[in-house]
TrEMBL record:
This is ABC-2 type transport system permease protein. It comes from Brevibacterium sandarakinum. The chain crosses the membrane at residues 26-46, 58-77. Keywords: Membrane, Transmembrane, Transmembrane helix. It comes from the Bacteria. The lineage of its organism: Bacteria, Bacillati, Actinomycetota, Actinomycetes, Micrococcales.
Length: 102
């Protein structure tokens, strides 16, 4: 099982990156949208939101929220079954996705 770890990791990473690069909506959602949110909430709405007396700056509340949104958006784009099915068959594991494409 550990003998193919780095090879399998490299293959899956390459396939996932190829899938992401061919899907512009994935790039926009996972890379450009968080930057747009930061610009919008800091420069456009930053002065309109009061965090209260004695609390920290607004950005210290904003950044963790944007980070969670970015992670959730990245998780939502799982790879297609044809990306990981060949490796599951090679190791003798049953592929639970029902896809027979390589």
């Amino acid at each position: 099982m550990t003998t193919h770890f780095f090879t399998d990791t490299g293959v899956l990473t390459a396939r996932s990156l190829r899938h992401v690069l061919r899907s512009p909506d994935t790039i926009i959602t996972t890379a450009i949208q968080p930057i747009g949110f930061m610009l919008l909430f800091v420069y456009v709405l930053g002065g309109a939101i009061d965090t209260g007396p004695g609390s920290g700056p607004y950005v210290s509340y904003l950044l963790p929220g944007i980070l969670v949104i970015t992670i959730a958006a990245g998780i939502a784009y799982k790879p297609s079954p044809h990306i990981y099915a060949p490796l599951a068959r090679r190791h003798g594991n049953a592929c639970t996705t029902g896809s027979s494409r390589d």
